[in-house]
Amino acid sequence: MSSNPPPDDVRRHFNLIVLDGIFWTLSTSFIEYGTVLPALAHRLTGSAVLVGVIACALPLGWQWPQLLIAGQVEKRPLKMRAYKLGAAINVVAMTAAIALLLTGEAIPPRLLFWAIVVLLWLAMSGVGVLAVPWMDISSKVVPGRILPRLFAFRRLYGGFLGIGAGFLVNFILSQRSGLDFPRNYGVLFLLCGLTAALAFLTFMQVREPVGAVARRPRSLVAHLRLGPSLMRADPNYRRQFRLNLCLGLATMCMPMLMPFALERLGAEAAVSGVFVSAT
Predict the structure, then answer these.
(1) Composition of the chain by helix, strand, coil, percent to 5
(2) How far apart are the first and last CA of the chain?
(3) Rounded distance between C-alpha atoms, residue 123 and residue 133, angstroms
(4) Which range among 30-34, 145-149, 213-217 shows the weakest confidence by mean pLDDT?
(5) In angstroms, rounded to a whole number, what is the distance separating the alpha carbons of residues 155 and 126?
(6) In Å, what is the CA distance from 92 to each residue of 11, 40, 116, 163?
(7) What is the value of pTM for the model shown?
C-alpha cells in the first residue's frame, strides 16, 4: 500500500472522487427513493404498503452484497475489477428499467411495478458490490487526513446540483413537459442512469496502486462476528451506528409523505420535484 503518494496524484484522485460523488448525488436525485419512487409506486398500485416496498428496494439492495463481496475483495491486491463488475450490474439493470418505463404503457400496472422493484433492487445490488472496492481504493489514493474534506465536497456540490435536479423533476412530471405516464418516469430513470454512468466512468480514471493482501481472508461468519466486536472496541463506531439508527428512524416516514400529498391534499406527482429540492 502506498503510504506517501505524490502530491499531484493525490490532487488528481481527490478531484476525480469528488466529481464522482457529484455525479452520483445528482443521479440519485432524479429517482429519489423518498419522493419520486413513492409517487411512481402510488400511481401504479395505489397501495401504501407497496409504496413502502419500492422505498426499501434501494437501501436493501445496496447493503446485502457487501457482506458477500468483502471477503473476496480483501484477497485481491487490485480492487478495480470488482468495482467495474458492480457498475456493470447497475448499468444493465437500469437500462432494462428505462426500457420498460419508456415502452411500458401497455404493461399491466402491477406487473410493471414489480418489474421496476426487481430491477431497482438489482441495480442497487450492483452499487453494493462496488461500494467495498470503492472504499478501499479511495482510502489508498487519498490520505486519511483529507478524507473528511473529500466527503464534504462530494455532498456539498452534489447537493447544490440536486436542488436543480428537483426543478427538472418537477418539470418532467408536470403537464408542461408533454410526457405521458410512464414515459415521464422513464425520462427520469434515463437521467439517473446517464449521470450514474458518468460517476462510474469518472471513478474508473483513478490509478489504483497495488495494495496489501490479507494473508488469511476472513470468512463470511468471521465478518459477521467482527461487527459486534467493533461495536464494543470502538466508541466512534458506536456513535456512528447510533446516529445512523436515529436518522433512519427519523426519516422512515418520508416515503409516505408523497401518497398523503397525492391522496389527501390533491397534489400532483410533479410536487415530488419540490420535495427533492427541499431534501
Answers:
(1) 80, 0, 20
(2) 39
(3) 17
(4) 213-217
(5) 21
(6) 32, 21, 13, 27
(7) 0.88
